[in-house]
Structure formats: structure tokens, C-alpha cells
Amino acid sequence: MNNSARAPRVAVVGGGLGGLVCARVLQNHGRSVTVFEREASPGDRPQGGALDLHADTGQVALRAAGLLDRFRALARPEGQEQRVVDPVTAALVGHQRPAEGEEVRPEIDRGQLRGLLLDSLDAGTVRWGRAVSGVDLLDDGTRRLRFADGTTEDVDLVVGADGAWSRVRPAVSAAEPCYTGVTFVEFGFDDCDTRHADLAALVGDGTMMAKTGGKGIAAQRNSNGHIRGYAMVRVPEDWHRAAGLSLADTPAVRRYLLATYEGWAEPLLDFFRRNDGGFVNRPLFVLPAPHAWDHVPGVTLLGDAAHLMPPLGVGANLALLDGVDLATALVTEPDVDAAVRAYESVMAPRSAEIARACLEGLDHFLPEDEAPETVPSFREFLASR
């Protein structure tokens, strides 16, 4: 399609990091773009924990977007600290502390980074409360976005930046996320330096990990005195139903985790005993590696919508790089189709290689052959006490 007569209408579906940085770069070059986000407002839900932005991916993307200095003003270089503790004794067995001035992978809260990107866009770029339900190809070659409220909008390019359960992806691929066999159960602490100083010391300024027997505990320092952590276990996806417990029953989940981690050091078990709120179930899903599709004019994907992989510190970085690469192609190639082809020719092999490495990394971190064969039901656990 020749778009020389008018500027192409670009719709980014999803107001996450990759979609927002794509919009930012397009606007930096005077291009029009609209971001459709299903959430009702920027503060509609918590945005998750801290991210480490790598010097060769995420930071490259922010530099291209003209936002690296703003990022550095918010980032926490001290968050690069890594602590590994023994699961039985909680003794420190591995420790990496960043050198003075090192900013290879500084940390930033996901919400802070998203806010930085949102603030960098023209007013009205993001249309909140606009949930996309699907994409149709029209006879004239344009794309029609279908919204959950029954309305539609026609555009020249749809960018699926809408995450793991993308509503845009079916327009180019039949692939669906599959469960990895690993679930993270999230917990958190506020005012950790005052109310939980011992746990804060155990975590340090960055991330603490302990693992054995097909399960682990990770805890991470966030901004404003918050610690976010995860019990990481190899379990069936429906483990809580099989155990006969409700995820909303915080005391029951706590007791179950304490039983699952029986024999671990008391300071580590305190992460379950003393968390401020409830527990959040986060089963890990992935797309096939590689996830490839035949080129479809007028539609493409970026970030988790294109290459969902285990959360081993690269997903956000890749999403940012995807967004910048796509936007750069759109402002340098002769037309939209050439731009999408150029972008996909770089993104697909890059993400395939990293996705395979992340799958191997997850298996190395929580070996499947170390996981218990069965998960006892909560009723059985209660009966044993």
C-alpha cells in the first residue's frame, strides 16, 4: 500500500513499555500515533516490580527515544546487587555488588518507567478504557480494530503490544501461550527498612535468591521502602484447586507455603509469615520458541505479544528495543509494509534466540527432575497436623 498521499494511521494496542516507547519515537519524528489501552487510567492497577534495564538493549532503546537521562534520574544503580543465600541456614553463599559508577543493569520500578514514558507523549495519545477485541482486514487493505464496546476504528497499521494474551496476535498467528510448569506466588512488604529491617538486610539493595529441590524464594528491593518477593515452585497450573484452597484465603495459602518450604531457614519462612497483604498467583506462560508467522500486511507484534518468555530479566528490555526498532523502520522505510517487513526480519531471529535461552535458564534455575512428583492437597496437609 502506498502511503505517500497521507501519513499512515498507526494504532498501538496496549499501553505497556514497548507500545509507549514506539509511540514516543514516532512522535519525536512528527508522526501521528494513537495508543489504545484497556485499563481505565494510568493508576488502574499495580504495574509490578523492579526491572533491570540492560546497557545493550533497554538503555539503547531509551537513548533512541531521548529518555535516557530521565531514566537515570530515577534508576537505582545499587539495585544491581545480587545475593544468594543457603535455603537451610540463610547464610550468604554468593554476593555480587556493583562497582562505583557501574550502570550495566540499573533497576527501576516498572510503574516509574511506564510513568516516564507516558509523560513523554503528547496529551491525548493514550485512549484509556479502550479494550480491543479483535482485528479485521478490509477490502481496501486497511485494518479495522474492533473494541469490546462494539465500536470500530480503521487504521493502516495495528501494532499488537498487548501482552501475553494479545487480542491482536490471532490476526497473524494461531499460537497460544502454554504453561511452563512453574508458578510464582507473589508477596510483599511496605516500610521494610523500619518494620522489617531484618528482612531488608537479608535482601540488600537489589535481589536475594535461595533455591533447592525444584523450588525457590526470590525477594527484590523496590523504591519507597518496598520489598516484592516470590515463592517459585514447579506445580500443576491448578495447584490451589487441587490443594482445596482459595487464593483469597491468605492464612490458608500462608500455611500451605510454610508446609511446602518446611525445613527452610526461619528468616526465609518469615517472608511468608510477615507479608503485608495477600498472595498473588502468577503461573508462568510462554509462547513457542521460536514464535514465527507469515507476514501479514498492516499488522505486527512486539514485546510479550510476539515472544512471551520466562521472566529472567530480558522481557522488558526486548519490548523496549522492539518498540524503537519498529518506530525507526516506520520513519525510515518507504512505506508501512516495507517498514514492518524490515522490523520483523530483525525482531524475529533476535527474540527466538533469547527465548530459547530463557527456557533453558528456567530449567536450570528450577530443574524439573528436582520437583516433587505430586503436590499434597491442603486437606491432606491439615490432616497431617
TrEMBL record:
* InterPro entries assigned: FAD-bd, FAD/NAD-bd_sf, TetX_monooxygenase
State its cofactor. FAD
Species of origin reads Streptoalloteichus hindustanus
How does the record describe its quaternary structure?
Monomer.
Q: Where in the cell is it found?
A: Cytoplasm
**Major subcellular location class:** cytoplasm
Catalysed reaction(s) here are: a tetracycline + NADPH + O2 + H(+) = an 11a-hydroxytetracycline + NADP(+) + H2O
Query: Which residues does the UniProt record annotate as the domain FAD-binding?
Result: 10-205, 299-333
The GO terms describing molecular function are: FAD binding; monooxygenase activity
Q: What is this protein called?
A: Flavin-dependent monooxygenase
Q: What is its EC number?
A: 1.14.13.-
Q: What class of enzyme is it?
A: oxidoreductase
Q: Which UniProt keywords apply?
A: Cytoplasm, FAD, Flavoprotein, Monooxygenase, NADP, Nucleotide-binding, Oxidoreductase
- Organism superkingdom: Bacteria
Which residues hold FAD?
D52, R110, D304
Please provide, in alphabetical order, the Gene Ontology terms of the cellular component aspect for this entry: cytoplasm
Q: Does the keyword Flavoprotein apply?
A: yes
Q: Name one GO biological process term.
A: response to antibiotic
